[in-house]
Amino acid sequence: MATPINAISTKCREKSFQSFDAKVVNNQPSNIPSEYVWSDEDKPSTDIKELQVPILDISSFLSGQDNHVATSQASRLVSEAAKLHGFFLVTNHGVQEGILARAYKCMGTFFDLPASEKQKAKRKWGEISGYADSFAGRFYSELPWKETLTFRFSAEEKFRSGTETVKDLRF
Question: Domains of the chain: which residue ranges?
Answer without folding.
Answer: 11-40+98-171
